[in-house]
Amino acid sequence: MHTVFVIVAPIFALIIVGYLCRRTNKLGDKAAAEINKMVVWLCLPALLFKVTATATWAEIWHPGFIAAFGAGALGMFAITLLWRLRGGHGLVASSIDGLSAGYANTGYIGIPLCLLLFGQPGLQPALISSLIVVCLVFALSLMLIEIGLQDEPEVGRAVGLVLRALAKNPLVVAPLAGAAWAMTGLGLAEPVMHLLDMLALATTPCALVSLGAFLAEKQPRAQASPWPLVVLKLVGQPALTWVLAYKVFHLPEIWAASAVLLAALPTGTGPFMLAEYYNRDAGLISRTILWSTVVSLLTLTALLYALGYAQ
């Protein structure tokens, strides 16, 4: 547990910093929303552009791992989405809840965890999983949210409205622009890389401070329980990924173990960014992130023992 705690502790610290700053009024009542806007419009787009602009085909093309981890994340997203829709929730809320069950914190926790366990070879699966989570699962959720927001009855006009909305969304434009730039083979100038690095490094701290500030606000008493989403994320996704990695695709040990461990990570801040940005039930999502992170101290430690990476 010590290994997991060392990696996860800074997440709690940043959430607590945001919480205390808001409770003591060092941050105003609009701080959570304004900081989140900075993440959505500046920091995360810079990170997405940098990752896709600098990735090479050789680094990311590992089809077995992509299929196992990607199908696990998308599968849990789809299961949660359908469950919420059948329960009478709208497409927007259901998409955000689905993202909460399939959006692993691969960047802030996954990369250092894989490096600690597997050394430098562990960096590759962690980076690929980050691309899958952000550029595939996150993008799919964004698309469904925009579809859910449209009330245009005519299909053609509705599709046009969705495409225009997506074309204006920095979280969609940035990775596409980065991928297009990578295809030119030109690379990025050093000053541009420094600018992107500074913005990208601020993504997680700002998102976590924003989350803490939001949690400090008074929440309505009647709130949905986060525990179904927590269980789906911490148990459902790694279980599905384990079957795919070990039984279906028969991945080499380091790739199979990485896929399962990365799938078992707690919910990242992406769903909260969207819930806050689209004025949805950010209270449920914030508590899902918080409790999945807390409980992951136990579930990740148990998984490390089960896979033979802890003594």
From TrEMBL:
<feature type="transmembrane region" description="Helical">
    <location>
        <begin position="227"/>
        <end position="249"/>
    </location>
</feature>
<keyword id="KW-1133">Transmembrane helix</keyword>
<dbReference type="InterPro" id="IPR004776">
    <property type="entry name" value="Mem_transp_PIN-like"/>
</dbReference>
<feature type="transmembrane region" description="Helical">
    <location>
        <begin position="38"/>
        <end position="58"/>
    </location>
</feature>
<protein>
    <submittedName>
        <fullName>Transporter</fullName>
    </submittedName>
</protein>
<keyword id="KW-0813">Transport</keyword>
<keyword id="KW-0812">Transmembrane</keyword>
<feature type="transmembrane region" description="Helical">
    <location>
        <begin position="255"/>
        <end position="277"/>
    </location>
</feature>
<keyword id="KW-0472">Membrane</keyword>
<feature type="transmembrane region" description="Helical">
    <location>
        <begin position="6"/>
        <end position="22"/>
    </location>
</feature>
<dbReference type="GO" id="GO:0055085">
    <property type="term" value="P:transmembrane transport"/>
</dbReference>
<feature type="transmembrane region" description="Helical">
    <location>
        <begin position="64"/>
        <end position="83"/>
    </location>
</feature>
<dbReference type="Pfam" id="PF03547">
    <property type="entry name" value="Mem_trans"/>
</dbReference>
<feature type="transmembrane region" description="Helical">
    <location>
        <begin position="170"/>
        <end position="189"/>
    </location>
</feature>
<feature type="transmembrane region" description="Helical">
    <location>
        <begin position="289"/>
        <end position="310"/>
    </location>
</feature>
<keyword id="KW-1003">Cell membrane</keyword>
<feature type="transmembrane region" description="Helical">
    <location>
        <begin position="195"/>
        <end position="215"/>
    </location>
</feature>
<dbReference type="GO" id="GO:0016020">
    <property type="term" value="C:membrane"/>
</dbReference>
<feature type="transmembrane region" description="Helical">
    <location>
        <begin position="126"/>
        <end position="149"/>
    </location>
</feature>
